[in-house]
Design goal:
The chain has helices at about 5-40, 55-65, 65-70, 80-95, 140-165; strands at about 40-45, 50-55, 100-110, 115-125, 130-140. With about 180 residues, the protein is of the alpha+beta class. The protein has 2 domains: about 40-140, 2-Layer Sandwich (Beta-Lactamase); about 145-175. A hairpin with a 5-residue loop joins β4 (about 115-125) and β5 (about 130-140). It is elongated and about 115 Å long. The N and C termini lie far apart (about 110 Å).
Length: about 180
């Protein structure tokens, strides 16, 4: 006749040995979700099928849409039409190479304004070493881009003004700054 240890104890221990690591995995996943949802940055994840399957709360608030609307290809509806192909080209190239990437594009905010964003993504690998997908962050770089464009325009205007002054015989060269006095 089987003993108590054979009937109950060993199967119970075997079950607990399987459940304890699973519980640790669930706790680890829950910690990740808490951090990702409360981080002051937009975060996304994609699966091995190249489909985005998760966006954090800051992303959804920026877009003014639900997770169900954004997953799959839904998020692409927010990319400026002039930037969509460049985004996909960058993503597909690195996906095949399984390497980090960054790309800038305009993303539609909930109020109808397109904002310049910088996305950085890194590959995620499963325990077997196979590509599980990507995880990425998204930063609003709109103000930086606008400032850069303003600086470029200002430099262009300055060069044009210097050329006009040089052509008028003002003694200032657009190619070389004037020598300091003395």
């Amino acid at each position: 006749m089987p003993t108590f240890t054979q009937l109950v104890k060993r199967p119970l221990i075997a079950l607990l040995e399987r459940l304890v690591p699973r519980r640790a995995d669930l706790e680890s996943e829950e910690r990740f979700r808490i951090v990702a949802e409360s981080a002051p940055v937009m975060v996304w994840m994609s699966g091995s099928d190249r489909m985005c399957d998760w966006f954090n709360r800051p992303w959804l608030e920026f877009r003014g849409r639900t997770l169900e609307q954004e997953i799959g290809h839904g998020w692409e509806e927010g990319i400026h039409p002039e930037d969509l192909n460049g985004c996909w080209d960058a993503f597909y190239a690195v996906y095949e190479a399984r390497r980090e990437f960054s790309v800038e594009y305009r993303l539609l905010r909930h109020d109808g304004e397109y904002r310049w964003m910088l996305t950085r993504g890194v590959p995620r690998f499963g325990p077997d070493g196979e590509l599980a997908g990507y995880i990425g962050t998204v930063f609003d770089v709109h103000d930086r881009r606008r400032s850069e464009l303003e600086n470029i325009q200002l430099l262009d205007e300055l060069r044009q003004a210097l050329k006009k002054a040089e052509a008028a015989g003002g003694g200032v060269s657009a190619e070389r700054p004037p020598s300091p006095p003395g």
